[in-house]
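Subject — a protein and its fold
Fields — amino acid sequence, structure tokens
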Amino acid sequence: MKKILFGVIFALCVGAVLCAQIPEDLNVVKIEEEAKTEAGLPYTMTIEYLPSTGEAFFTFTINQSMFNQADAMIAIRDRAMKFIQETEEKGVRKYYHYVYRGADSTKYDGAKKKVYYTSRIRFLEKQATVY
């Protein structure tokens, strides 16, 4: 009896795995571009965006010797505002505001002599009510 019950449960699990479909909007959209800071220093901005939740990871990458946290914060803020405009123009979503989801992280890679400054941002579709 236990073997039959185990076989039925196993068959159901295998069937569920084979029939499961991942919606397209759960796929991560990755955007990578190069730009310059206000001081003219070259950097790379990587955006990993999850359309289903409206969350994105903005990663500012620059050489260690040129890293300035203020420049990274400004570049991410400006890119987030530009991202809102781009999604509205494409008709994908209409975001009105964004919020930071936790503290920003800074990672140093000594071997590559790079700094990775990452912000987790959530875009909001409705205007926030301020009390």
In short: The chain has two helices and six strands.
